[in-house]
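Chain A, query sequence.
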Amino acid sequence: MKGSTLLTDLYQLTMVAGYFQEGKSKQRANFDWFFRTLPFGGGFCVLAGLDQLIEYIVNLRFEDVHIRALERLGIFSKETLKKFEGFKFTGDLYAIPEGTVVFPHETLIRVTAPLPEAQMLETTLLNIMNYQTLIATKAARVCLAAEGDPVIEFGMRRAQGPDGAISAARAAFVGGCESTSNVQAGLLYDIPVRGTHAHSWIESFPNELEAFRAYARAFPDSCILLVDTYDTLKSGVPNAIRVGKELEKAGHRFLGIRLDSGDLAYLSKKAREMLDQAGLKNARIVASSELDEWIIESLKKQDAKIDIWGVGTRLVTCWDHPALGGVYKLSAVEENGQMTPKIKVSGDPEKITNPGRNKVVRIFNHNTLMQGDVLLREDEEVDGSKPLTACHPMYPHVCKTYKAPFEGEELLVPIFSNGELVYERPSLMEIQANTFRNMERLEPEYKRLTNPHIYKVSLSEKLNRVKDRLLVMHR
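Chain A, predicted structure.
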């Protein structure tokens, strides 16, 4: 994210300039990033993108080229441009780690910093975190549908531009994909890269058998043959079997075939029979062709004989829910030396914000399964030996009591303190492992693709009282 300082909306810069002019350069404020609605009709999200946000903040500087670009806009005074020259992030940032399962209305990132600095992060934070969290969530759903089969992210050619393709490959890996077809993403993030060949390879040769043999000569130890260019069962699979047996006779292992069109359930069953009868029982069947979690779930129910799933367009574009509606809202401002809670009021209860500097505690039962999340004031403590009563974030008369004993885990961890990075950044493999741990601790009813159970996110009684008091003030 080097050189991305101006990857923002102009209104962030005008607000920053206004804060400078109004003497608010030192006034501290608190902003929260959260989302209100789960995508895909699902029961959870997987948080992703934090490492890119860290990289952006570490490199957040207005270089000469940026100052000249702002000067050309003709709306900033020389005094303001001078203040931009020394701009950097000096505040505190807490976040829930990547790979954590998260839910609506809870604080996922908490930024406390001088107003201009906290404001400056908004657009870029939303751009990074909303997209990668959406992709990681879609990938997790696809992997759940695949029931442990490897899933390859295949979507680069349909992604929203080069950066979209690279970010999607990273986030898909966070969500559980085994590998990507995107070589650049593989290089940048050390993601395993997988691929076979296209129909054009087959068509460039006089016949299919010759094309298969040529590919096998070039890649004898990583040979997967695309069998649906002409006729899958009459020529594709028989020719692949012939070449596969030739490879194995020469001391190589034939990896398998790929199906990219047609009735994947029927074709995979027939192909499996033909491969097994030919003695190629270890050959694997890869399927692609506009797959998503719904199609994979259906194919699984039909007992399709597919071993590996290549998922592209509908993953990287999030076909059925193209954006996560994450927001970045001010929740407290420093007044007379103290942080004063602030609230956004709306006729829509879902859009009323939670005031103040808050933390998120996840409640686990004795089996270490997730039971619910509670937002508390920053200075509150949770005692797992005593019952905990918490209120619905929109309907305070609806309460839930967590019976003792239980385990409580604070989810927000320090990332920046006084502008200094204090977080040990995990590897992408460690982040993916965190996703797997979280998914194991989430009960099955929340992971259903259809009509999942609603996970409880509540407010502590103390936070609820603060919220109610502010709502009364603004009536």
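The chain is about 40% helix and 20% strand. The mean pLDDT is 97.
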